[in-house]
Amino acid sequence: MKKLFRFLGFFFIAIILLITAVVFLRPSAIVSKQEAKSKLASPASHFLKWRDAEVHYTDEGKGFPILMIHGFGGSYMNFDALADAFKDSFRVIRVDLPGFGLSDFPSVKENENYIQDYNDYMRFMLDTLHIDSLYVIGNSMGGGIAWLTAGEQPERVKKLVLLNSAGYDTKAVADKLAMFKYKSVGKIFDRGMPMFMSKSGAENCYADKSKVDPQSVLRNNISTNREGNLAFMLALARSKQFPDTTLISRVQCPTLIVWGKQDKIIPVEHAERFRHDIKNSEVLIFDSCGHVPMIEKTKETHDALLRFFKE
Question: What are the respective helix, strand and coil percentages of the chain, to the nearest 5?
Fold first, then answer.
């Protein structure tokens, strides 16, 4: 019996050492900014200077403008399929939020106010692109930025679409990002985000894991591992800065609230909370759908949004 326990002890130590070696001694996955740009930029890509940072957006199609805003850990590519569906009839603008995708975040100051930063960034983008009237679509964290923008700039945002939006119980939602919260765990990312973590994160966003596209996972892994992005994501996750939920009621424009019923990240019950606080709003729930309806239910999302925009 002692030999068995001794064997099991050595076995578990070996497993721990193996995992440690895989995590901490693996080749670096960090991608230079230039390499990320060469692999991820599209023919519709543009770059601007905001403060001391270079920020990225795409601009394609003609017609009334639609702005699409991705969530935490995402990029403009999260809206590839939806943008393709809309660009024949609308001007479609997709942003990489500062600190994500191909966009840098400006030099961080002591006591950085990230919420105000993103408010300032949104005003900068709309001013720079000379957009006085538009529709705004936001997913997850991007939904939070979208409803803040609608509240801050009501004269510009004519209609708002919230896709599994952040807004309520944001601390509880953020607590699910344990891999980013703790400095000790953050050491895992000194050599970049491992591919298996990117795959696991993608699967967590879907109701049907079989719909996860390996090429999309690869592009997201490159985006996440772009030089500077992971460090910013860690800082943002640890900042414990959350928007004021009471500001949601300032939204006055017509609002469509879309949710995936099987969302594992932000509970579907939050859709009704948005409907209650945004008076001119309606809710649409997709079954067999997770956190990213614009990807997992592209056609259904497009059709619902098109109807909403035409009303």
Answer: 50, 15, 35
